[in-house]
Amino acid sequence: MSEYNIREMIDKKKGKSGNAAIEKAVPIILLIITLVSVLTTIGILVTLLTETVMFFTRVSPIEFLTSTEWSAFSSDPQWGIFALIMGTLKITAIAIVFAVPVGLGAAIYLSEYASDRIRRLVKPVLEILAGIPTVVYGFFALTFVTPLIRGIWPEVNLFNAISPGLVVGVMIIPMIASLSEDAMSAVPNSMREGALGLGSTRLEMVLKVVLPAAVSGIMASIVLAVSRAIGETMIVSIAAGSTPNGSLNLMESLQTMTGFIVQVASGDATYGTDTYFSLYAVGMTLFVFTLLMNIIAQWFSRKFREEY
Amino acid sequence: MTLAKVKEETDMNTVYDTAVDSRTQEMNSIKQTSNAIFQAKDFNLWYGNNHALQDINLDFNENEISAIIGPSGCGKSTFIKSLNRMVELVPIVRTEGDIVYRDQSIFDKSSTVENLRTKVGMVFQKPNPFPKSIYDNVAYGARVHGIRNKKVLDQVVEKSLKGAAIWEEVKDRLNDNAYGLSGGQQQRICIARALAIEPDVILMDEPTSALDPISTTKVEDLMHELKKDYSIIIVTHNMQQAARISDRTAFFYQGYVVEYDKTNVIFDKPKDQRTEDYVSGRFG
């Protein structure tokens, strides 16, 4: 039997040139890859900014911010972003009011009450729900939920805020449930034992120890969900209509910021017109909204963080 | 470990296993004391098919420190967690026999498990304060049980922290997160948290195993103080600790109680060969 000399083999391998070159090249290649994503983001931002400035040389920013009417395609166009923001807010509010209690309830059940078997069964189903294409949710809203609502309240318009709002809610439930469940499962069991050992009931343990300990993760999941609701496009394009208005009425047709962008981008405006440039102003507003959400989220999780 | 040692241990195990039946009878004949707070009566416990506790018969006395010692896996932690029914958090647990706390079975349907746990407090192996302020940690139990009055809570917190001998160290930082404290301080906060709801018995599951020697001394001194007002049952891996602090000691081995007697008897004149081997450090 021949003996292998390990030491010699290692020395031979170590002596090979080329290893050093690879070691030097790797960080440079990784830097380039990183730069691609950073530069793309910067590029998008710069385009967004310059085109937005272009829009404001044609339309006064004061009108943009103070007018309450948006009619980009009429012979006397109005540019009050408020009407589109109102549309987005109505959809987002309905979605959140519906999805937060349901998503959190599901998370609490899965993390604190469900047996392993049930958890293993339900979690994948939730993840499947998260994988349904939004266009499917869109026609589900228009062809199933809307008729259902109109069956109960016949005065509701075919295009309205309630149906797409609820369906956007359904879309974000898995995100809230799944991420909140992760946050709650990450709370160490020793804390649950501590609470139960002091004679707390299971519910008291959940409400007073587990939820507070997981609050930063739960807030993060809700904020992510809000961002998705604000940015949701397909469902609202299909089921909410295309009539921008600043009213609080949930029964009539409306248009969101994203809905307007789709309408323009899918060919209703020619290059170089006011309407074309308004696309960027609306996009910019949308961007500011999601940025604000992120800042609020960070502030929230820092303020309420319970470190362990 | 040398081969000879391994063999010696294997031999010892065989001897112990065959001696088990006669031992059970010995245990049953131990004299019942009148001021027992906890009595285990033919208590058996299974994790699935694993018979973890077998025919346990033990009486624990009021205002004493009772220690449970034994090698890893002997069932001592399982047993102490049975006393406040925390062991039932493991879904596959099944029990037989009875545990009586102050003349009432802990499994009696007329009383809730929450009720039992407010009277039988517990301090865990690893300090497990909640990620809240020191004040909120100690006030937790009182708040859960409906006490809202700020004055009352202030008093409860101060009294409990003093009771746990940590008031002087934390009185100026009650609103700081308990996780900013050292391990030993955290464990005393957990003791204060248990004291705050004025329990009758305190169960301690290896309370000093995660602590340094100085913190350990502090917690041990504290236990001596607490003995006046509380009955303490402590599981410990550390035989010197059991000898230092306890009045009575039970030696668990492979799910059985091998011997239970006054601590000095267990350590100086044990009746059972296995107890002597364990307390003299020959195995475990």
TrEMBL record, chain A:
Residues 85-297 form the ABC transmembrane type-1 domain. Gene3D superfamilies: MetI-like. The chain crosses the membrane at residues 21-49, 79-104, 125-149, 161-184, 205-226, 277-300. It is a multi-pass membrane protein. InterPro entries: MetI-like (IPR000515), MetI-like_sf (IPR035906), Phosphate_PstC (IPR011864). PROSITE patterns: ABC_TM1. GO terms for molecular function: phosphate transmembrane transporter activity. Keywords: Cell membrane, Ion transport, Membrane, Nickel, Nickel transport, Phosphate transport, Transmembrane, Transmembrane helix, Transport. GO terms for cellular component: plasma membrane. One of its GO terms (biological process) is nickel cation transport. It is found in: Cell membrane; Membrane. Pfam families: BPD_transp_1. Belongs to the binding-protein-dependent transport system permease family. CysTW subfamily. Part of the binding-protein-dependent transport system for phosphate; probably responsible for the translocation of the substrate across the membrane. NCBIfam families: phosphate_pstC (TIGR02138). This is Phosphate transport system permease protein. The gene is pstC.
From TrEMBL, chain B:
The keyword Nucleotide-binding applies. GO terms for cellular component: membrane. One of its GO terms (biological process) is phosphate ion transmembrane transport. Residues 38-279 form the ABC transporter domain. Keywords: ATP-binding, Nucleotide-binding, Transport. The keyword ATP-binding applies. One of its GO terms (molecular function) is ATP hydrolysis activity. This is Phosphate ABC transporter ATP-binding protein. It comes from Salinicoccus hispanicus.
